Amino acid sequence: MVKLSKVALGALVAVCITSCGQTVVNDGHIGSYAMRLLEDTTSVEYGIIARSVKADVYGSIVLAGEPILSLQLGNYLMSCDNFNNIDGKTNPDGLPDFSGELICPLLDMFNDQYYKLVDSTCDKISEVTIKNFVSALDNTCHLNAFDTEKAQKKTPAKLVVLSSLYSSAYAYDDIDTLRVLSSSKVNVVSPIHSVLSDALAGRNTSCNIGLWVNNPDDIKLYETVLASLDKHRAGLNDSITLIDEVKLLDTRESFLSFLGRYIQEPSAKPLDVIVIDNYFVDLKELESCISDIMSVEEDEYITFHGILGNNLKVVELRQSVAAACFRHLRGNNAFTHNIEFPKSKIYTTYASEVDSTYITLELKDKYISSQMKYYLEVHTPNLYSDYVR
C-alpha cells in the first residue's frame, strides 16, 4: 500500500499550483476523504482519477451532482448557440456550440439535496462530490441496481461540471487538488466560480454584484466563493447584494420593485453586475428593462439611474457554465469535430453496499418513472426529445 505522511502531504497540498491559472489550489485545508485518497494511492477511487492522465477527445461532458441542476445544465448545453464554432468568437452561427458532443447528466439520487449534508466541516459534501467525480471518470456502469456483478462500458468524462452550488462552494478545491496531484487531465467546471469570474472579468475596482437566485440562502454559497476569488484580486473588496424578488410578478415588475426598495436603504451602493441564477427570470426582458432605465427620461426610471453602475453587465449561470466548457474544449483542442447534433445519456449514482464507491447506472428509458418523464418533457425538452424514446 502506497502511503504518504500527513505532514509531507499537507505541505504538498499547500503549495500545489494549478496548471492553467498559476494560482494556489487551496490554502492548505483539504477534506478528510480527499486526504484519505491522497494518502492511499492504491485505492480504487484514486486509481480511476489517476487513469485519466489524458482526456479522450471522444469522452463525454458530464454534469454530476444534484439532479435538478444536472438536468437543467445538460438541457442548456444540448442547444445553446453563443459562439461561432469555427473561430470561437462570441457570435452565434446557427449551430449548437457542443455539436458532436455527448452530454451526460449524472444524477446523484442517493444525495439529491445537498443542503442536508452541510455541517461544520463540509466534509460530507466534499466526499459525495468526489465520489460523483470518480463515477464520471469511470469507463463502466451497471445495468441495474440489483445486479452489480455485470458491467457495461460507459464513455468516461473528458470534462466534468459540478452540478451543485454546494459542491462549488465546499468541494471544488478538494476536487482540483486531487486532479492536479494525480496528474489528471480531466478539467472541472464549477458553476459559481464560472459565473463570478465572468462577473468580475475586466474589473480592477471593487464590485457590487446583484445576485438574483431562486433560494435566498444560496447567497452564502456565492459569498464563500467570492471570498476565495478576492484573495487573488489585489486586496479588492467585492460584495454581493441579494435581489429579493416579489413573487408572482414578471421579470420587469420584480426588478423595478426590488430597485424601489433597494434605493431606500441607507447603505445602498450602485450595482456593477447582475448575476442571474434563477430560471424563472426572463433574461431578455431584464436587459430591456435595464436599457429603458438608463435611456428613457421618465420619472419611473430616472429615480434609478444612480443605483445602476456605469457599464452594468448581466451574466447568467447556465451561459457562464457553457462558456467555461466551450473555452476549455477549444483551448485544449478537445472537441470531437463531428458534424452532428449533440447526443445525451442520463446516468444515476447510488451508494454501494460493498465498498465506499458509488454504483453508476444508465437511466434507460424503461427505467425512467412517469414523474421523471413528465419533468424531462416539460422542463428539459432537449434531453427529453433526444434521450427518452
Could you state the order of secondary-structure elements as H and E? HHHEHEHEEEHHEHEHEHEHHEHEEEHH
Rg (C-alpha, Å): 22 Å
CA distance, first residue to last residue: 47 Å
Number of helices: 15
Do you know the CATH topology of the largest domain? Answer: Rossmann fold
Can you tell me the CATH architecture of the largest domain? 3-Layer(aba) Sandwich
Number of domains: 2
Shape by Cα distribution: globular
Give the structural class. alpha/beta
Mean pLDDT figure: 87
Q: How large a portion of the residues is in β-strands, by DSSP E?
A: 15-25%
Helix content: 25-40%
Number of strands: 13
**Uncertain regions spanning at least 5 consecutive residues:** 17-25
Q: The biggest beta sheet, please? A: 7 strands, mixed
CATH classification class of the largest domain: Alpha Beta
